[in-house]
Amino acid sequence: MQYVKWIAAWLLAMVLAACGGGGGSAGTPTGSGSVPVPDTSAPKVLLGLVDAGVAVNRVNPNGTTVARATVYDKTGATVAGLKVTFTADAGLVVMTPASGVVLTDANGVAEVAVKRASVSVEGAGTLTATAEVAGVTATKSFDYTVGNAVTPDTATPKLLLGMLDGGVAVNRVNTNGTTVVRATVYDKTGVPVSGLKVTFVADAGLVTMTPSTGVVLTDVNGVAEVPVKRASNSAEGAGTLAASTVVDGVSLTKSFDYTVGSAISTTPTPKVAVQVYNNGVAGNRVTLGSTSVARATVKDRLGLPVVGKIVTFTTSDTSLLVFSPASGRVLTNDSGVAEVGLSVASLSANGAGAITASAEVDGATEISKFDFQVSSANVSLSNLSLGSGSLALYGNRPVSVTALINGAPASATPVQVTFSASCGTVAPGVALTNGNGVANTTYTAGQLSCGGTAVTITASAVGAAPVSGTLSIGAAQITNLQFVQALPQVIYLAGSVGANQSMVSFKVLDSSGAPLQNQAVELSLVNQAPGVTINTIGNTAPVTLTSDSAGLVTVPVYSGTVPTSAQVRAKLVSNPNLTALSNVLTIAVGRPVQRSLSLAAEKLSLEAGFQGRAYTDGLTSTITLSMADRQGNPVPNGTEVNFVTSYGILTPATCITTDSRCTVTHRTQGTRPVNGRVAILAYTPGEEDFVDANGNNVYDLGETFVDMGNAYRDDNFDDVFQSTGEFRVPRAGSSTCAGAFKGVPNTCDGLWGVVDIRDQMLLIWSDGVAVFTVLSKSTAAISVLVNDFNDNSLPTGSAVSAVGSGPDGTKCTVSNTNYNAIPNTTAPVTINLTLKDCFNSDWVDLSVTSVLGKKTTLRMFFP
Q1: How many CB atoms lie within 10 A of CB 779?
Q2: How many CB atoms lie within 10 A of CB 90?
Q3: Are residues 344 and 279 part of one domain?
C-alpha cells in the first residue's frame, strides 16, 4: 500500500520534477530503472517555475509566473500545512506575498506569484525554496532568467545520454562492478517525459545490459537507466552506446562513446570558455557602433553542454564596457551557451580590459577570462538643417543635424546632441540620433523679443566641434485690442458712500496673444450719462494713452448722479479698425434713505417675562434691517448700522450690510420690563428724502425735503421724546422743527444733506400664561381674545388647541379654528372657533401651550 502511495505522490509532482533542475546539468537527473522508486532517506523539496501550466525557466515579461514547491517527508509522502520560504533576487523579481512565506496545500504544494521587478530589469537569477520537515531542513534551488537574457531553446523534444559510476559521470565501464547508463527525455516544452519507452543498444562483445533487451521506461523525472557490465574479464576496447525513443511523433537518438578494460579512457573536467564576437566575428576588439557580444560555453566533465545554468559576466573596467542585461547574469541555452550584449561605455572610452565568465558546474565554480580592446571614436556633426526662408514670430521650424562616428553616420550607436538658440526655445533641448545618425528637434520663436531678428541655433555633442546656423524671424503683428476689466465693476452715485471711480483696462495683443507695449490707444465714453466723466473729473472728451510693458492701457471713469451702465471704447491709433468696448461697468446706487428703511424680527414675542415666577434668559430673536437708496437700488456692501435696545442685549452692537441688509441677534437677560415691552432702535448715516422736481436725481436748492432732526429711542412708544431716560443720538443741529421719524424736536439744521436714518420696533417679553376674554359664544361659534398678563401677545409659536365634550359622552365637535399657533405679533390675538353638533350642557376647552410648555385652559359651557 505504501508503494502505491509513493507512485501517486510522484505522479502528482510530475510537472514540478521537470522544473527541479538548476543545481546540475540536464544530463545527470536522479532515479533508476523503469519504475520510479522514491528515495526515502530524507525529506525533499522539488522546485520549478510554471507559466500557464507549462514548466519554464523564464519569468513572464508581461504577466505572472508561479514558483511551485512540493514537499515530501522521508517516507515519500507529501506534507500538508507546512511553511515554505521562497527567496529570490530582489533586483530581478518581486513575489506575492512579499515575504515569500506560504503553507503547503493538501497535496504538499506551496506556490508564490513571481513578477518582473520592473519593465527594464533583465538577467538571470536563482530561486530557492526551504522547508523544515520533522526537524530536518530541506532546500532546493532553481536558476531562471528575466527580460531579454538568453533562455534554453525548447522548441523540439530532446534526449540526453550519459554514464555514471557511483554517482560520478564517467566514460569507462567499471572493471569489477556495475556502471549505469542514463538517458533523460524532454518534450518540446522542456518538461521531462515519464512512462516513455527508451531502447538502449551497446556492443555485445564489450558489455551486457540488464534487462538484456535494453528496453526500459522513463520515471517521473524523464529518466531511464540500464546497468551495464564488462562482458567478460578479457573484454576490452572502446565502443558506442546508443539510446532511442519517440516523443510526440519525433524520433530521437543519442550516442555515447565509452571504453572497457585497459583501453585509454579520459575523464574530462567541467569548463567554461568565453570569447568576444564583433558583428558575428570572433576577435578581441569592441568597436563603437558595432553589434558585440561576449559568449560563454559551459560543459560538464563529460564534455556535454550544461543547459539552464547561470553564467555571470563581469568586467575589470566599467568605464570601457557595459553589459546587457546590466547584471551580466544570463542562462545557458540548449547548446550550453550564454551570451551577454556588449556596448562601449561612452564615445570617449579608450583602453583594454578583461571579461570574466563564471558558472557552477558539478559543484565547482569554473571561471574563464578574455582580454579585449576598446578604441575611442572620432565624433563630428554635419548638415545642420534649419529649413528655408524666414520664420513668422511664434512659429515652429524642424531642426536636424547628422552625427558621424569615424566619418560615417552614427546608425548603430546613438549620439546625444544638445541644441540651443539665442532667442526662443528648442524642444527637446537634448536628442539622440536615430538609425540614420540624425538628431531631430523643433525650434519655436516663442518670445516677442525674437521678432525682427536673426536667431542663432547651435548643435553640440561630446567630443565634436559645435555647428551653428541663423534663422530670420518676422516682426510682431498687432492683431487684437482686448477689454480686460473694470475694477470695481459697480461704483456708486457721485456724493454717496462707496467707490465713485472705476479703473477700466484694455490690452494690446499680437497674433499669438502676447502683449505689445508703446502702442497709442484712444479711449472715449460711448454713452454720455449725466455727470459720468473719463480720465479726469469733469472731462468727457476722448483721451489717448500708451500701452505699458504688459500691453495695458488703464483709464479712470467717474460716476454721475443717475444710475446707468457706462461703456468705454478703445481704438488703436495706428489702426482705427481695431476697437474694443468695456461691458461690465455699472453706476448703480446712492446713500440709503428713510422711506426705504425697515426692521423685522424673527420672533416678535419671547417667553422671557414673569408673573410671580422665575423667568428665562438666553432666548433669542434675529433682527433684520433692510435698506435701499432713493431709486430702490441696494446700498454699497459694507454700510455699517448701529443698534440699541431698552432691555436685553444685541449682538453684535453693529452690523455690516451685504446685499443691502444685515442682522443682529436680540437675547433676553437682565432686568425685565414691567409692561413686557422692549424698544429696539437701528440707525445709519443716509440722506434726507426730497422731491426731485427737475428729475436729475440730485437735490437742487429750493426743492422740498424732510428735515429729520436727531434720532432717539422711544422707550414708552408715545412718540414724545423724554429728555430724561430715553436714548438719543447726539448730532449737531438746533433749528426749530417738530422732529420727524423719531426725531428730537428742535435739533434740525435747516439744510438738506446727510442724516441718521432710523427705524424702531417693539419686541415683547411675555410670561407665557394666557389670559382669555370671551367675546362671543354660541353652540355654533366662539370668539375669544387671548393675551398675556400685560395685554401683550403670548410667545410667538405657542400652540393653540380646542376640544368639545358633552355630559353623555357625545362629542361637541370643534370643526375649525383660525389659529393653530400664536402668530408673529406683539398684540393680543382673537381665536375664532367653528362648532358642530354642540348643545346646551356641552362645553368646549380652549388651551394655549407656551413655547416653554406652560399650558393654560379655558372651559366654556353652554348655555
Answers
A1: 17
A2: 11
A3: yes
Give yes or no: residues 182 and 78 share one domain. no
Query: Does the reported pTM lie above 0.70?
Result: no
> CA 800, CA 848: separation in Å to the nearest integer?
5
Q: Which of 399-413, 417-431, 825-839 has the lowest mean pLDDT?
A: 399-413
Cα dihedral value 567, 571, 577, 580, nearest 10: -40
| 759 lies in some domain | no
Residue ranges of E strands in 231-378: 237-247, 250-260, 271-278, 281-283, 285-286, 292-299, 310-315, 321-324, 329-331, 337-344, 351-361, 364-374
pLDDT tens for 97-130 read: 888 998 899 889 999 999 988 888 888 889 999 9
Query: Band of the pLDDT at 713, cuts 50, 70, 90?
Result: very high
Q: Which residue spans within 422-463 are E strands per DSSP?
A: 425-427, 430-432, 438-444, 454-461
Q: Is the pLDDT of residue 783 over 50?
A: yes
How far lies 227's CA from each of 177, 181, 203, 295, 316, in Å?
A: 10, 6, 14, 37, 48
Rounded to whole angstroms, the Cα distance separating 485 from 552 reads 11
- C-alpha pair distances (Å), 554 with each of 524, 529, 578, 730, 760: 12, 21, 17, 44, 46
CATH, residue 531: 2.60.40.10
Measured CA distances, 636 to 140, 461, 486, 624 (Å) = 86, 67, 17, 17
Within 10 angstroms of residue 791's Cβ, the number of other Cβ atoms is 13
- Domain interval for residue 852: 771-861
Measured CA to CA, the distance from residue 828 to residue 668 in angstroms comes to 21
754 and 685 Cβ atoms separated by less than 8 Å: yes
How confident is the model over 83-105, as a mean pLDDT?
A: 90
Give the largest CA-CA distance in the chain.
159
Pairwise CA distance, residues 286 & 276, whole Å:
8
C-alpha cell at 670: 437682565
Report yes or no on 489 lying in a domain. yes
Q: Are residues 10 and 125 in the same domain?
A: yes
Q: Are 620 and 660 in contact (CB under 8 A)?
A: no
Residue 152 lies in a domain: no
Total tally of structural domains belonging to the chain? 7
The answer to whether residue 607 sits within a structural domain is no
Three-class SS state of 14: helix
